[in-house]
Sequence to fold (125 residues):
Amino acid sequence: MSTAEPASIPLCNSADLVDGGLAVPFDVKYAGQTCRAFAIRYSGAPHAYLNRCTHVAMEMDYQPDRFFDDSGNWLLCATHGAAYLPDTGQCAGGPCRGGLVKIALSESDGAVHWHTAYNLQPVEF
Ligand code: FES
Fold:
């Protein structure tokens, strides 16, 4: 498979993503580097982002796979409290600079897939 061809990669079952609940982690190759990523559900729709804060490039979850605040309305970075909008990844408060890197998802027949892009590829084992 050429790395330029977009592909759709199985990620999880739809039921694994609960609105405002725990994330499902996965790994991607972003610009040639293996990076952690995560998928969440918000207002019914699945979304996925690189697990990389835009303040300092570090992983954000304060407990494994926990990104939502108690209200279920924000994705938080544990380190200095940056807040991101769950549906766009845009910075909504705190020290973040710009938005999270979004990863395209699709959902059908009870399954969620993520989509590759020119700078987002599956990790090869
Ligand atoms: S590293 Fe995320 S807020 Fe500072």
